[in-house]
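stage 2 :: seqdesign
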């Protein structure tokens, strides 16, 4: 990065390394830098969303997941992550829609299946 500070992939990779070391704020900083250089860099945007979720910033994370789906609509993992963010905001019905879409794209996606079950259980509870 000293040699080529505008190298988005290097910022992304450094973000991953820092994230693994538990340095989440520093990791977020590098994901953001990668996105300033390449706004369509969906992997960096996804990792930024995941890091923000871990910090409890679910609305902000959801915004990033939605942007990824705008750029590349067919990614099951992003639908699942957006569903989780929506669940944490109490938007259970919308979350279920994203879990279903994740399963439509990737029918054997067990995490999305479990999340859909949880969403449907919560919807049933709310209707009583």
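stage 2 :: out
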């Amino acid at each position: 990065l000293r040699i080529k500070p505008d190298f988005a992939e290097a910022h992304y990779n450094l973000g991953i390394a820092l994230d693994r070391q538990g340095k989440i704020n520093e990791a977020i900083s590098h994901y953001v830098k990668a996105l300033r250089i390449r706004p369509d860099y969906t992997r960096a945007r996804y990792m930024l969303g995941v890091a923000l979720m871990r910090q409890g910033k679910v609305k902000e994370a959801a915004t990033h997941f939605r942007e990824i789906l705008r750029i590349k609509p067919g990614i099951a993992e992003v639908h699942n992550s957006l569903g989780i963010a929506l669940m944490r905001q109490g938007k259970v019905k919308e979350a279920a829609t994203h879990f279903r879409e994740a399963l439509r794209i990737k029918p054997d996606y067990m995490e999305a299946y479990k999340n859909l079950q949880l969403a449907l259980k919560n919807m049933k509870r709310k209707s009583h």
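stage 3 :: structure notes
- The two ends are 56 Å apart (CA to CA).
- Residues 52 and 89 are 14 Å apart (CA to CA).
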